[in-house]
Amino acid sequence: MSSSITGSVDYLVDARWQLTSTSAGSCAHPRDLPTDASWITAQVPGTVASVLDRPDQDAVDWWFVTTASVREDTALSLTFDGIATYSTIWVDDIEIACTRSMFVPETIHFTCDGSIVDIAVRIGSMDAHLKKRRPRGRWRSSLVAQQGLRHERTTMLGRAPVYGPLHAPVGLWRPVTLRDQSRVRDVQANTSLNGNDGVMRIRAEFDTEPTSVVLRVGESTFALPVGCLLDEEVTIADVALWWPHTHGEPVLYPWSLDVDGRTLHAGRAGFRSAVLERNDASVTLKINDIRVFARGGCWVPPDPTRLWVSADRMRTELEQVRSAGLNMVRVVGTLVYEQPEFWSLCAELGIMVWQDVMFATTDPPEDPEFVGSVEQELGALTLTVGDNPALVVVSGGSETQQQATMLGVPASEQHIPLLQKTIPDLLASELPGVPYVTSSPSSVSGELHTHVGDGIAHYFGVGGYLRPLSDVRTARVRFAAECLAFAVPPERRAVEKMFGSANVAGHHPEWKAAVPRDRGSSWDFEDVRDHYVRDIFGVDPNLVRRDDAELYLDYGRAAVCEAVTRSFEHWRRHDSECGGALVLTLRDLVPGAGWGLRDSNGSPKAPWYSLARMSRPVSVFFVDDGLDGLSIELIDDTAHSVRCALRVALYGPFGPVGDMHETQVELEPHSAQSVSLDRVVGAFADINHAYRFGAQTYVAAVAELVDEHGAVVADATHLIGERPVRQNDVGLTAHAEKVGPGEWTLTVTTQWAAQYVCVDVDGLDISDSWFHLAPGASRTLTLTGDKPKPSGHVRALNSIKRAHFN
After folding, report:
1. What is the distance between the alpha carbons of residues 739 and 761, in angstroms, rounded to a whole number?
2. Which of 327, 453, 432 minimizes the C-alpha distance to 390?
3. What string of H, E and C letters represents the secondary structure of 436-459?
4. What DSSP element (H or E) covers 472?
5. C-alpha 726: how far from its chain's center?
6. Most Cβ neighbours (<10 Å): which of 62, 419, 481, 646?
7. What are the CA-CA distances from residue 269 to residues 202, 348, 360 (Å)?
8. What are φ and ψ of residue 105, in 5° steps?
9. Above 90 in pLDDT, residue 74?
10. CA distance linking residue 345 with residue 1, whole number of Å
11. CA nearest to 805, candidates 732, 742, 750, 752
12. What would the mean pLDDT of 219-225 be, rounded to a whole number?
């Protein structure tokens, strides 16, 4: 995990940065800046777009200037953690550095003669750089129009239309610090396992030889050899392992490096093994020798404009991921490397990270300067994550190999030395024990990189390619690093706040600006969602939208819920060939119907609840196996045994049919099993109406895992047969009751089968929503937040009438 410098004053902590622009190439030095330049206060860390909404940000040069007060005759270190993108840096009007990558930090060491330091940074026009003639790639990227971006170490965010109306990041997007020169530089810790023992390798460089160097790890203390270069390994006996939160405790050890009696660096480290087993076409992720089903999604920056958030906000974002039962996020190669707080919180919360190197769809150049820049950015990454147990996979980029394959480039012409030699060699040295894949997606057995049943897949059969929901079974996905992309509408109240009403949906330019589309395509992902509304519910979404825009969006929300549920039911069942699935994406970048399962404000959308139900560490759910009836899938990801009563109730149109069926089950730690519903019932009853012998008897089945104290550990409701017909009233009621400060229970009951019950309440967090209820059944939810009392309504997709509560 990233270590921190301790006890060092930052002279720029309260600095006031000023910002102005000049035409590209017009000013070569700060002295040349116009005297009548218009200056505004900049946000650092941040981007130009953080404070200024200009469409021509890539067309001009940008200047950032500030002044710092320091001690006279002081040896200083000026560090820029990230500048987007081409920059020149002056200190006291002396040019001291240039950068060409937004992903490489720059540190300048100098001595200040006076007590004032003037700093100026010019960030050059990206458009001007892209006009330079440079070698073409072997293939064209379909992601961006400006093919010259293949030569740039910068993000696709704001430059790839698929991400919506965002400005390209320009500016000092990561912190800038000015400190007294430290005695120690480039401190890097790496951890590994040797049997039951933990091994930490510590490396550092000293300006002058110290008299004592002491490393403290947890309760252990190690005196290290002294010298100007430090490269030592220490062993911590019988370490407690770090686990993803779904499978155990994410144990971390505090560590510090003391030099001559003073703590100069401190951090927290974890010990775990991570293996990505690849055998024939299969992919299995193992943490500490235990198979882990990875579920989660592709991460996007919480603030896509500034690209920097407070530690508290980052914690809120990641705690939402954890509370939903998700255990992996993927930092995608089209975006940016995340800030240090992201990494420390993922380690603390037990969230695994799949990290792409920042490549996407382009053909990376092989010139030494470009390769050297990539090696520098990876060096910066390893300094941040060397001892961080959350990092479990590194990928050479997003669709870097798939793009060439989809464009028909012969396999013999797709060789990319950077991805297949340079990067893995560097990672093997700097991040030993972290699995690497050449790209996402990528084949394992030698098939084309487009084959979803081989190796790492991007699975959009259910989604962009309009395959039926049953395709998730026949595709035989082994590990989906991306999947299930839909234009997901925010919840009703969010739509009203963002757009005024649902009437803009499907056609208004402001609405459509946020709907993802592949560059150059004649369709967008709202068309995809409408296809599944038609396929699943048998209604024409265009006609529904003309009559009732709110209902139109509800059908869309429910269709995505259905796709998520059906897919994860198959991928997570006990005999699944799938080792993990990450949805595209966890959050929207801009307001509207984006790919995110949460909107741009962080509020959950409908399928967020579906994914959370399917991701619980202890789970029970039904799978329809056709003529073999319904199977009940039981999963215990945790480190503890689960001994429960499995209770199953069957429901007809008007309520329960027959007695409750009960059997005892025992799940060993990190295990799963399946039991036939027919076996639990004890007789063939054609429960899922697959044989169609006469009229359908059952409309729903409910399963619960109940512990010895009578508490429900996990539950599932499965609606059987044709989708319930939309009717005037299914008999929904809702009753709220206060149980503590800022906490209420909400009990929802229905008289008839209720399909996709939505709890619509403003200003409170809801424990669940968009679920099914069997006839006569009820469900108790938790509402939390800072409101005097809850008010809202409960509605179902198959009911016109809603139930209000307050």
Report:
1. 17
2. 327
3. EECCECECCCCCCCCCCCCCEEEE
4. helix 471-474
5. 36
6. 481
7. 12, 10, 31
8. -65, 155
9. no
10. 10
11. 732
12. 96
Cα separation, 516 vs 463, in Å, equals 13
Rounded Cα–Cα distance for residues 214 and 478 (Å): 46
CA distances from 357 to 108, 231, 239, 485 (A): 26, 26, 31, 22
Task: List the alpha helices (DSSP H) in 522-629.
Answer: 525-537, 541-547, 549-572, 606-614
> So what's the pLDDT on residue 725?
82
Q: Are 459 and 467 in contact (CB under 8 A)?
A: no
**Which residue is listed with tokens 């911590």?**
236
* Cα–Cα distance for residue pair 228/208, rounded to 1 Å: 6
Distance CA 481, CA 493 (A): 31
Q: Taking a C-beta distance cutoff of 8 angstroms, is the pair 333, 356 a contact?
A: yes
Sort 136 into a burial class: Cβ within 10 Å, 0-12 / 13-18 / 19+.
Answer: exposed
- What pLDDT score was predicted for residue 212? 95
Pair 21, 86: CB distance under 8 Å: no
Closest CA to 296 of 325, 258, 331: 325
pLDDT per position as a tens digit, 247-258: 999 999 999 999
Residue 530 burial (C-beta neighbours within 10 Å; 0-12, 13-18, 19+): buried
CA 140 to chain centre: 27
Name the residue type at position 804: H
Q: Round the CA-based radius of gyration of the chain to a whole number and report it.
A: 28
- Is residue 397 within 8 A of residue 359, CB to CB? The reply is yes
Straight-line distance from the first to the last Cα atom of the chain, in angstroms, rounded to the nearest whole number: 47
The token duo for 758 is 């939505």
Tokens (6 digits) for 717: 């409701």
Which residue type occupies 178? Answer: L
pLDDT digits (tens, 9 = 90+) for 509-532: 999 999 999 988 899 999 999 999
Distance CA 728, CA 335 (A): 47
pLDDT score of 172 more than 90: yes
Question: For the residues 756-783, what does the mean pLDDT come to?
Answer: 96
Rounded Cα gap, residues 369 and 407, in angstroms: 28
Q: Is the pLDDT of residue 245 over 80?
A: yes
441-478 pLDDT, tens digit each: 999 888 889 999 999 999 999 999 999 999 999 999 99
Residue with tokens 């779904």: 246
Structure tokens at 538: 């048998």
Q: What is the DSSP letter of 799?
A: B
